Automatic annotation (TrEMBL):
GO cellular component terms, semicolon-separated: plasma membrane
Record's subcellular location: Cell membrane
Molecular-function annotations in GO: odorant binding; olfactory receptor activity
InterPro entries cross-referenced by the UniProt entry: 7tm6_olfct_rcpt
Pfam families: 7tm_6 (PF02949)
Topology term for the membrane: Multi-pass membrane protein
PANTHER family reported for this sequence: ODORANT RECEPTOR (PTHR21137), ODORANT RECEPTOR 19A-RELATED (PTHR21137:SF35)
Keywords for the protein's UniProt record, in alphabetical order: Cell membrane, Membrane, Olfaction, Receptor, Sensory transduction, Transducer, Transmembrane, Transmembrane helix
GO biological-process terms attached to the record: signal transduction
Record-given protein name: Odorant receptor
Length: 446
């Protein structure tokens, strides 16, 4: 009904289609029905888990070679993030179902004159989601195409066949023949397809929800402008009744923001912690510029995709923060306060005072905004600059042994470990400050 009324054929298309491919109905009315095809979802998840386990074995076997670790860790860490998103999504499926229904209900309740606001923001969101879908699809396509190109070139130059898996791992069957390699390739296809589809679904769901929360802010401003124009024509009682409706709308938007934050907190926390190491690893391999051109191109696309993931969350958090904080200035600029009664002014002050506390998108212990993304990019830049300086020094490093790295002066790994630890400290710093503040309050109460 809403899609037909808005005449927006691709409303929520990218997110909805991505979830449907893996058996999830994100628009279900009951949270028990959100997993529409349980067997399909289970099989995809199982293939992704097996793939993650095989890559983990490979990383452990080559723990003394950080270059090999960096080559394998990209898809491994993305698979771990996708599996974590799956667990959180299934565990909180009731919360996301309620949030989706509340957002849809808010959009349905808008007046026909306000449809253009929904059209504007959802069209922008579709462009961002489609671009992200193209980046993820390109990364997945490259992960399967690169080994095939390498095998073809090796056969053309040496006249020998090699069987290179899409992702290196410790597999429990022989894939040095056509049948075994075909089975391995299909397993990778199903596992990585799930990782890509679920990542697109969850990562585009957050900006879509934020966009529709922003829609409700602008709908409220639109209604307040109408009220301001009518303030000279209607009685004070009718004016106050309309203002109360807008204040209730503001309260409803705040509840949506809290629901959004509660659902994505754990997902964002793990995503940013793991993505810190992932970006450092990809930047490490890319700056060293080892390998053929198509391999470097794939690594560049992969790095761009991961950076876009973080940017989407950071931009959404910044957007939510800005919209929630400018309510007071918008209300103040809309009304002619000298013509309002004292009761009307007091009603508007409720929303203005509440807007002094900004809404945030958090990762359990830290706020997600553009400053966090800038900090991550600065750490990536530090890695690139340091690797360029030490590019001529080729040393083997032990990924699990810090003292070995210090003893052998493995500068690359020491730098990456330092960056990752700094990343964790920044993530947990807000949590530590909060705990200290709570302890101080408890001592004062005693």
């Amino acid at each position: 009904m809403l899609l037909h009324t808005l005449q927006l054929k691709r409303y929520f298309w990218v997110t909805r289609r991505s979830f449907n491919l893996i058996g999830i109905d994100i628009t279900a009315l009951d949270y028990h029905d959100i997993v529409k095809y349980p067997m399909r979802c289970f099989l995809f998840t199982a293939f992704a888990a097996v793939l993650a386990w095989a890559m983990t074995i490979h990383v452990y076997e080559y723990r003394d070679d950080f270059g090999e670790f960096a080559d394998t860790s990209g898809m491994l860490l993305q698979t771990i993030i996708a599996l974590w998103k799956t667990l959180v999504f299934l565990f909180k499926r009731k919360e996301i179902c309620d949030l989706m229904q509340n957002v849809w209900q808010c959009n349905i309740n808008v007046n026909p004159q306000e449809f253009h606001i929904i059209l504007k923001f959802n069209s922008q969101n579709f462009t961002i989601s489609a671009l992200y879908m193209v980046l993820v699809s390109s990364t997945v396509f490259g992960s399967f195409l690169v080994p095939l190109i390498y095998m073809f070139e090796f056969y053309r130059k040496n006249g020998e066949k090699i069987w290179l898996p899409p992702q290196k791992g410790g597999y429990f069957w022989d894939y040095s023949n056509a049948i075994g390699y075909s089975v391995l390739y299909i397993c990778h296809l199903l596992g990585i397809f799930f990782v890509a589809a679920f990542s697109i679904g969850v990562d585009t769901l957050c900006p879509w929800l934020v966009s529709n929360i922003v829609v409700q802010y602008h709908v409220m401003y639109y209604r307040l402008r109408d009220i301001a124009e009518l303030s000279y024509e209607i009685s004070t009682e009718k004016l106050n009744a309309k203002i109360i409706e807008c204040v209730k709308c503001h309260r409803q938007v705040l509840n949506l923001s809290n629901q959004l934050e509660n659902f994505f907190a754990e997902i964002i926390f793990i995503k940013f912690v793991i993505s810190g190491l992932l970006i450092c690893s990809l930047a490490f391999r890319l700056v060293r510029a080892e390998g053929q051109f198509y391999i470097l191109l794939y690594q560049l696309v992969f790095l761009t995709t991961v950076s876009t993931q973080l940017l989407m969350y950071c931009y959404s958090g910044q957007r939510l923060k800005n919209e929630s904080s400018q309510v007071a200035s918008e209300i103040y600029s809309i009304f002619e306060w000298s013509h309002l009664s004292r009761n009307s002014q007091k009603l508007l002050l409720f929303a203005m005072m509440r807007s002094q506390r900004e809404c945030h998108l958090t990762g359990a212990f830290f706020m997600v905004d553009l400053s966090l993304f800038v900090w991550v990019r600065e750490r990536e830049r530090d890695v690139c600059m340091y690797v360029k300086q030490k590019k001529k020094k080729k040393k083997r490093t032990n990924i699990f042994n810090f003292w070995f790295c210090l003893k052998k002066k493995s500068y690359h790994f020491v730098l990456l470990l330092h960056v990752f630890l700094c990343y964790l400290l920044k993530v947990l710093r807000t949590g530590g400050s909060l705990i200290a503040m709570l302890k101080t309050l408890d001592e004062k109460q005693v």
